[in-house]
């Protein structure tokens, strides 16, 4: 899994408006109604992390969840991070169809 | 719920060797075997937080959980923080009896 260039990352981020690229990682902050809703989303994300064998650097304060994704072995952002970001988006912002 | 003095906090911390006091909060870091074990502990802690209606500022990276406790309304550390710290200790370091 090789590190993506800054330009590749910015191009991919066009599809991920909640995410920003800085400090060799992609970052997002999500706000929920309360702690329960926030931790419920974290639990669902945790299962995705295990399924993808890729784990975030994340923080929570009450209803706010902050997530940073990078690939340690590649020393930067890789497709693994975007795969996890996509799974996270599907959890935190389900699209009604 | 009134803010405890630095001296009261240090005295109370004698019973909590995993915790340190700085920046108007008490802080601890716990290491687990892997992400699953770490997130399992977080889930149990989340239930205690809801039961106590008191929530941490916490971060996770793979098998490491970092927790900071303070009481926003009191602008410092109160007995609520020690109550939650005690509940956390019971989860992360169960004593075999």
Automatic annotation (TrEMBL), chains A, B:
<dbReference type="GO" id="GO:0008124">
    <property type="term" value="F:4-alpha-hydroxytetrahydrobiopterin dehydratase activity"/>
</dbReference>
<comment type="similarity">
    <text>Belongs to the pterin-4-alpha-carbinolamine dehydratase family.</text>
</comment>
<keyword id="KW-0456">Lyase</keyword>
<dbReference type="InterPro" id="IPR036428">
    <property type="entry name" value="PCD_sf"/>
</dbReference>
<dbReference type="Pfam" id="PF01329">
    <property type="entry name" value="Pterin_4a"/>
</dbReference>
<dbReference type="InterPro" id="IPR001533">
    <property type="entry name" value="Pterin_deHydtase"/>
</dbReference>
<protein>
    <recommendedName>
        <fullName>Putative pterin-4-alpha-carbinolamine dehydratase</fullName>
        <ecNumber>4.2.1.96</ecNumber>
    </recommendedName>
</protein>
<dbReference type="GO" id="GO:0006729">
    <property type="term" value="P:tetrahydrobiopterin biosynthetic process"/>
</dbReference>
């Amino acid at each position: 899994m090789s590190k993506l260039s800054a330009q590749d990352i910015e191009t991919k981020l066009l599809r991920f408006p909640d995410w920003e690229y800085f400090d060799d990682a992609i970052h997002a902050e999500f706000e929920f109604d309360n702690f329960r809703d926030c931790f419920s989303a974290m639990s669902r994300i945790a299962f995705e992390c295990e399924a993808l064998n890729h784990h975030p650097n994340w923080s929570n304060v009450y209803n706010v969840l902050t997530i940073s994704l990078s690939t340690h072995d590649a020393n930067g952002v890789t497709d693994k991070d975007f795969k996890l970001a996509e799974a996270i988006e599907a959890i935190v912002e389900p699209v009604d169809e």
